[in-house]
Fold this sequence. Notes:
It is built from two helices and ten strands. By secondary structure, it is mainly β. It has one domain.
Amino acid sequence: MKFGSRFFLVLFCCGAFVVGCGDDDDNGNGNGDAEFSGGTFTVTVESVDDQCFDNAMNTVILPEGVAVDLPEPVALPALDALPAETDIAFSEPFQSTDDVPLEESGDQGLRVAGEGIEQTDVDIHTTSDDECLTQLNINAELIATDDDHLTGTGTLTISEADGEVCPVFTNDPPCEVTTTLSGVRID
């Protein structure tokens, strides 16, 4: 698996763990007063906004420049099951994370709880044996447009990058790389 695929896997997983809503009349999900019921979703990274490395992360996350599905479906709990925890198996160079806490967000939402998912010494350099080790934190939040569809964002906050081959920060760290996410129920 290419590094770019693994990198967006982290963002997909984080984004997949969060569901939100709109106004009080229909909860923003098209279900009237029904809450999001949870389930298994295919999650897609639609776009990337790199505010850290002058768009260098765009090619890491979306190497072909087009939307990419998360390699494995993501299970999301129903809102009435929150708070809850979920295990996330990330591909290298990211560390798998057990017991990721999820919490409510707004009237009908859920998100990664607390400070998010911490990742240390993540090598974002993909073209040689040299390293660019980053320290980062991942958070995400999604909106249920109905019980079968999600939209939202995943945010990767990069606090440090160390190595001779690291891209130059265009904004002082910590800085953010934001992805636009979507999800479709498969079960």
